[in-house]
Amino acid sequence: MLYQNARIENAKETQDIRVENGCFSEIAASLVPREGEEVCDLGGRLVLPPFIEPHIHLDATLTAGDPVWNMSGTLFEGIECWAKRKDKLNAEDVKDRVRRAVRLYASNGVQYLRTHVDVTDPELVALRAILEVREELRNIADIQVVAFPQEGILSFPNGKGLMEEAVRLGVDVIGAIPHFEFTREYSVESLNFACELAAKNGLLMDVHCDETDDDQSRGLETLATRALELGLKDKVTASHTCAMHSYSNAYVLKLMRLLKMSEINFVANPLVNTHLEGRADTYPKRRGVTRVKELTEAGINVAFGNDDLFDPWYPMGCGSMRDTVYLGLHVTQMMGYEDILNSYRFVTTNAAKVLHLGEAYGIKAGNPASFVVMDAKDYYEALSYNAPVTLSVRKGEVIACTEPARKQVLK
Ligand code: FE2
Q1: CA–CA dist 215, 201 (Å, integer)
Q2: Residue 196 a catalytic site member
Q3: Residue 88 pLDDT greater than 90, yes or no
Q4: Do 151 and 233 belong together in one domain?
């Protein structure tokens, strides 16, 4: 198969892409079609590596309004709504919603997801269901599963035992939620436990870290220190880190040295962080999004996620990575031309580092032929005009396509 006139990652000149046996075999300025070779002219459209959702909670997805809507929109009312929905949770319910959500993502060019799954459930119903359904969905997406202790590791009965059981069942990533633990001592102990569990089992880590406006929430310094000392380094991700928005600049100045040394990754979730944080403020209201611009400038890897898709904590979403990038750039004031042009990296290459996808991710000869085509000449235009993903190709096969709408002004 020969894809002609592809504008790969905003390149000024177009290139042709040859796909053979599910892999990129040649990428060059002008490739001559072979006899009988199928040809697809992309007409100078933007070609990117597949989109990645680095932070989502698939166990709760597509449950907004069932059985009740979160009327205030707060995190705490979300927890109350979820408690009511949890009664109906069973394996088929979880699998059905995950299938629908992942197909929605696939229609928008997302081929990789990292899902946090609540393991503060003695039966681990959702975890078992998601580990099963991810096998079924492998032809459209790779799904990494995080053991996420929603109600704490030290602050929930048998929290440590449930985390260990999740490892036995086959999770890829160890989570924690230090800011939610009852005490600061529990917070530190939960991180020590989680880091050691990850190190012992050779797993990645992704912590719900300081998802609060409390400027005294200091899980991040403990996480980064353990990542450094245990040699886990870039296998570790700090998600949210909203408290960093509220830290004093003097403290951040000191913290940055440790963050750089630790090599940990960050995931910000601009849509959900702006929606749920700042709720205890009157005016001025804090935005609650971590210091993406400063982290990026310091050479620290940051990705953007959605966090929630139509669930008790976030009532919107369509399985696209576009809106989180769009809002993320506004709220972090990263609106320079180059910032906008290259912002696809938050949900492609930067997110690939979070998921540790390695060299096999990306558009280059020898790699699996996985890519997306957007109806735009570059990502600046794609983001600005909300361009659809016209093709999503996975290991050489087209798994999703969209016919772009054509708008006309008639007068
Ligand atoms: Fe989350």
Answers
A1: 33
A2: no
A3: no
A4: yes
Assess contact for 135 and 102: CB atoms under 8 A: no
Asked if residue 55 and residue 29 are part of one domain, the reply reads no
Distances 240 to 29, 30, 289, 317 between C-alpha atoms, Å: 41, 44, 7, 18
Span from the CA of 206 to the centroid of ligand 1 (angstroms): 10
In a domain, 387, yes or no: yes
What pLDDT, in 10s, does the model give residues 27-69? 999 999 999 999 999 999 999 999 999 999 999 999 999 999 9
Identify the band that residue 388 occupies on the pLDDT scale cut at 50, 70 and 90.
Answer: very high
| Residue 389 within any structural domain of the chain | yes
Looking at the domain assignment, is residue 410 inside a domain? no
- Residue 391 to residue 87: CA distance in whole angstroms: 39
Rounded to the nearest angstrom, the distance between the alpha carbon of 281 and the centre of ligand 1 is 21
State pLDDT tens for residues 297-335. 999 999 999 999 999 999 999 999 999 999 999 999 999
Q: What is the mean pLDDT of the chain?
A: 97
114 inside domain: yes
118-127: average pLDDT = 96
Q: Tell me the one-letter amino acid at 262.
A: S
216 CA distance to ligand 1 centroid (A)? 20
Domain containing 25 equals 2-49+362-401
Please tell me whether the peptide bond between 315 and the residue prior to it is cis, using omega within 30 degrees of 0. no
Dihedral sign (CA 59, 220, 277, 319): negative
Terminal-to-terminal C-alpha distance of the chain: 42
Query: 55 CA distance to ligand 1 centroid (A)?
Result: 6
231 and 217 fall within a common domain: yes
Write out the two tokens for 105. 């993502």
Residues 279 and 384 occupy one common structural domain: no
The per-residue pLDDT for 81 is: 93
User: Ligand 1 centroid vs 41 CA: distance in angstroms?
Assistant: 40
Alpha carbon of 277 to ligand 1 centroid (Å): 13
pLDDT for 133-190, tens place per residue? 999 999 999 999 999 999 999 999 999 999 999 999 999 999 999 999 999 999 999 9
Q: What is the largest CA-CA distance in the chain?
A: 70
Find the CATH number of the domain harbouring 18: 2.30.40.10
Q: Which residue in the list 151, 211, 263, 277 is annotated as catalytic?
A: 211
